[in-house]
Structures are given as C-alpha cells and as structure tokens.
Amino acid sequence: MLTVAQLLHAAAGRLAAAGIETSRLDARLLLAEALGMQPQRLSMHPQLEPSAAEAGRFEALLERRLSRRPMSQVLGRRGFWTLELAVSADTLTPRPDTETVVEAVLAALAGDRGRPRRVLDLGTGTGCILLALLSELGFASGLGIDRSDAALAVARRNAEALGLAGRAAFQSGDWGRGLAGVFDVIVSNPPYIPDAEIDGLEPEVARFEPRLALAGGADGLDCYRALAPDIARLLAPGGVAALEVGAGQAGDVAALLGAAGLEQREIRRDLGGIDRCVVVSL
Questions:
Q1: What predicted TM-score, i.e. pTM, was given to this entire model?
Q2: Element (H, E) at 236
Q3: Are residues 238 and 117 in the same domain?
Q4: What is the pLDDT of residue 112?
C-alpha cells in the first residue's frame, strides 16, 4: 500500500498536469476528506498507509477534481465569512470577494447593530450573504429570493445547519417583483459576467457553475438594470443597499442606481484592490 506522502505526491502531480494551480493544496484537502481527518494532520503522519477503502475514496474524489469540477462541489461545502456552507452544482460557489458585501453592510451599520432589521437578499444562491449578515446581526430577520428552486433548497439547508432558520425565509422569485413592504438592508450578488466571456473563463466556472448565476447579458449589466427600480421601491428610508459588481463595473452600476433615485454612499474595494461593492441609500 502507498503511504500518505506517496499518495499526496502522485496526486499533486496529476492535478498539476491537468492545469490545476492549487494542486498540492487540493491533493491535501481531498486526501484528508477521504481519511476523515483534518488536513493539517496529514503532515504529522506521512508514513500512514490508508486502507484500500480509503484509497478508493481518495481516487474517486481525485477523479472528480481532475475533471476540473470545483473543489467546493467535490467536497460539497465551502467556507464563507465565519460560516461553513453546503454547496451544490445548482449554486454559485461563495467567494472571498463577496465577503466585501458583508463588510460594507456591517460598516454602514457600525454602532447600531442591536435593533431589529429586515434584510432582503436578491439572488441568494447558497444564502451566503444573508446568513453571514444574520450571524452578525442578532436581532435581524431576512428573506432570500432566487429563481432556482434547487438553489433555494441548498440555502434552506444552510440556514437549518447554522441555527438561523428561525430568522431566515427563502422563496422563489424574479428579483424584487411582487414583494411588498420595505427592507432596512438589501444585498445582492447578481450575475455580472458578459455572456460572450463565460466560455473563456476557467473550466471550474465555465463548465460547472450554473450559467443562470453567471450570465449578465451582453454588457454584464442586465441584472442591475432590473434590480435598480426594485431596490428603490423596497429600500426603507435610511436603509442601505450593497451590490457586488464585476471589475470595472462600479461606475456604471452606481449610475444605474442613481438614475433610480438612490444615493451613492461608498464604492468598497475587495482584498485585491478591485472596486467590488456599490453601496447606496435613499
């Protein structure tokens, strides 16, 4: 039988040959998953010989990753903010860039987090933004909207697993259409990739992530055009809305929101220095 060290070395080589830049990290995470142990423990047991069943589980996971399926789908989960979320092929994988939206909302509410608020997440996917905000705002409740029933099922499962189901509701919808009342916080990470650019993205995205969560029309701005009037109608006076945007889109999105009567508060950059989140209010 091969040892942990030998399995890791061989797997990293195969992943690298498949064009995967994070080959060593991915090999470690996959083997840890197959063995049911924390990844950091692998380095403590390089001479451990996995059983035939464990080696078989590792090979099956490795084959899925070699197809360029995203690690989040191979493992079925992804960390976001302080949460671990279930992920499926029906949901966009939560990304660190999207944490910028959470940061922007919390910054806008700094010093005043203790009162009840209604939060609306348009295009909720896994529920990552809504659930991260509810985890930080203990008196808030929220509603997540998505067109995909399969994505909504994942979001509900995440809310249950995190103990937030009592404050988080999810329903099928087309952005804000048909919704009544007002919300203190509105967030969204809508599709913003120009349609013609999707097939040129890395295979993990182009082949495996749901196109419904990626395609933003010819110029990537179609969803913002639909969102702007809904946000203007549904945002409470004194409320805040924060939208994720693609690289180079912040100015255009801010202009669309401004034309709907919303006032720009901030354009927040992500950790890479890219303008990633447009923050507005009434």
A1: 0.94
A2: strand 235-244
A3: yes
A4: 84
